[in-house]
Amino acid sequence: MAHSAWPGLPQAEILRDGGSNQYLVSSDGGATSESLCEGDILCLIPTGDGNQDPKDYVLLYVSTKDCDTKGVSKTADLSLRKFKIKQPPKELSRYMLNANPDSFFGDIRNPSNRVELSVIVSVKSGTCEAEEFYDRILKDLLSSLGISPDQHRVYFTESERWIAEFASQVLCKKANEGLAQSVLLLSGDGGVVDIINGIFGLPQTSYYVKPKIGLLVFGTGNALANSSKLNISNSRGLQAVFHGLARNIPTFVCRCSTGSVLLIDEGRSTEEMGTDEQGGCVVHGAVVASWCLHATLVADSDTTEYRKFGSERFSMAANELLVPSDGSPPHQWQGKITIYRRSPSGELQSETLGRQTHMYILATLVSHLEATLNISPKSDPLDGQFRLVEFPPLPPAEVKKIFGMAFDSGRHIEHESVGYTEIEGLRIDFEESDPRWRRICIDGKIIRIPEGGWMEVRRETREVVDLMIRL
Ligand SMILES: Nc1ncnc2c1ncn2[C@@H]1O[C@H](COP(=O)(O)OP(=O)(O)OP(=O)(O)O)[C@@H](O)[C@H]1O
Known about the structure:
Strand content: 25-35%
Structural class: alpha+beta
Radius of gyration: 24 Å
Bound molecules: adenosine-5'-triphosphate
Distance between the termini: 27 Å
GO molecular function: lipid kinase activity
Low-confidence stretches: none
Oligomer: single chain
Domain DAGKc: 112-260
CATH architecture of the domain at 252-459: Sandwich
Number of helices: 9
Organism: Gomphillus americanus
Protein name: DAGKc domain-containing protein
Pfam families: DAGK_cat (PF00781)
Helix content: 10-25%
């Protein structure tokens, strides 16, 4: 760490403010003070180097104009604060930045021991705040840590395909050469999944070193972050980057019949998918594979107009599907569902769901699709277990009741019409003539299956990337 990074830093005192996780930071000899939530602390850096007093630290945190807001403030209200501190409260020692060669940045005090760092800013994620967060917080933070512009690369996404192409052309290539890499990714689930797919598109060498992803949360649903105990405070996940551990992101593979296409540009255009040796279409996911109501509402709400409403867009589109404004009844999706499970002796077994019409078919590796939508309450962070949530066509009021229960700590699994089970995989044979009802969702990406087609999802055993999480 270059101590020259801290010239003229003001001195402050940090004290616990009552019994909660609130602190008071007072500077200017007590003339100025502001409240600080523990979730907004980034790190404490010991500045003593033997000649100096070891009780000197630099405190870095994200400050908000609106500190009464529960949860997360708008990025426009955030700024990075840096103070010299003497004797911080001892419970804050867990935020101490130690010299650790295995950490996300490598040995931050020693530039020659740092890992290769890329920063990817997904400019269209969520409500498009990632770029502003980079400008307001991240740029200054990296420079304060002594990570100079020549020691990392910053990229702003230029297209829908940008992250997947970067992942295959840069990340995978270097990982295959055995290079340790870390990626600060400002996005929603889509950015992570694009990285996973970009890497899965190429073979792995025996030298492969999994890149570490530090996910800064800027999407709409943020299922992976909300399910992985990432602290979605104003630090947007930076606490896990500094103080977390790297853990494998479990994934699944989805194969679909030849002729399946990825819908892009708000569904106006299509793109060819990757293919396997048999000519089937292949895509990987880490969050969710769905059909019926879930896939259709994600697809219908993926427009610039809907995106302005943040995660509210999902319930708006769901309402239109359950109670269509033209007065028609909700659609009943038609198809054959086959479920794969492992027997206690490890044998793969299949069983067909005993009905042909459906309202909800969703296989997931995560617990939460949104901050409070606990779709799979038995899932633990990154546990790798695939679970199926399904129910048949029901009156709209009953479907809304089920969702109310899902938002209430995942109680929907107690509803008599909801099936919830551990699975190894799932196959759908579609029996729908209208292409609108043949759209599936793989981690937010929408795939249209050809008429008479099928899709199959299975857990994937190859590991490609790690996520920084706090255990
Ligand atoms: N410069 C760009 N031009 C066009 N599309 C972009 C650009 N940058 C990102 N995108 C696309 O924007 C989408 C952002 O997805 P992401 O998952 O990160 O956010 P989200 O959908 O709002 O959140 P979540 O998936 O968590 O609900 C992706 O499909 C990505 O490919």
